[in-house]
Amino acid sequence: MPPERELWVQGLRRGFSMRCRLLGKSMAPRLRPGDCVQIAPGERCRLGDIVLVDQGDHLVMHRVIARSKGRIITKGDATAHLDPPVAPPEILGRAVFRSRGGKETPLDSLWARWTGLACCLALAWLFTLTGAVKGWGRGKIGWPSLFNGAGPPEVEDGSISS
Length: 162
Known about the structure:
Blueprint: H1 3-13, E1 18-21, E2 36-41, E3 45-46, E4 50-54, E5 59-68, E6 71-75, E7 91-100, E8 103-106, H2 110-132, H3 143-146, E9 159-160
Antiparallel strand pairs: 1-2, 2-7, 3-9, 4-5, 4-7, 5-6, 7-8
């Protein structure tokens, strides 16, 4: 891990709020490349929150869509696949607001979380549906294919903490 990133990660782990500039497109349209995002430290997060996850060789900022067997399941709003489940200590923090063009937009309000989650899951279903048209009649449409045949993970409640 580069020393600058290590310092940044340690700052979050020690309770400091941090800002980062996004590079990827996986959270479009809510978050775009170049947006500046304020991260509140800690592993506590709720369903629909956008969290920063330490995946070892890189950091990923994706939405919490479920909790299953004590692990947190995240997904990019604009991606067709789920991320590997993570343990709560792998979460560095949650996005609280975005700055774009001089305007700050909250990301952790109830409205932002639930509308983001609805869009994320609707897009996932659409990706699954359009990708499964070739497999019509072979059980490849809807949630079972999205969750690798296991059905949707259980959501215990609206808050996720360790």
